[in-house]
């Protein structure tokens, strides 16, 4: 097994990021998107994040992107400018290799360097592995919203976790 490496986002990553995200839209309630966004929509989103200078990290294994993480404003209003929300997605075959932990570690470092003061994780409540990794990093539960997302013929709760940076 080859070692993975973390690096900054490049435009050539858009197809791989799109494919990874597509899996989660199609097969899970980890995201509440119900339709897969095209590569153009992903590129537009990342162009906005890149323009803002927000952390955009790619995990690469054998020369191929197998995961990504980013942090961006929790909400668009100016008073939230020091609070970010994190997002981490891994190719299903890349799970269990420590890549998620490495991405979150680097994301926290880059978010602090950017000037964010708080990080919020918004996680589907039955996603135990995502909740657990955030707890290991010191995130604490600050809220739960019940039955706010409807996907795959059932209602899903979300939890909010928070970490001071």
Give a description of the structure.
This protein is an alpha+beta fold and 165 residues long. The protein is 32% helix and 36% strand. It is built from four helices and seven strands; from the N terminus they run βααβββαβαββ. A seven-stranded mixed beta sheet has the order 1-2-3-4-5-7-6, with helices on both faces. Strand 4, helix 3 (99-114) and strand 5 (118-124) form a beta-alpha-beta unit. The longest helix is centred in the middle third of the chain and has 16 residues, at 99-114.
SSE layout and pairing:
Blueprint (H helix, E strand, L loop, with lengths): L3 E5 L5 H14 L11 H14 L3 E6 L2 E10 L9 E8 L8 H16 L3 E7 L3 H9 L3 E12 L2 E11 L1
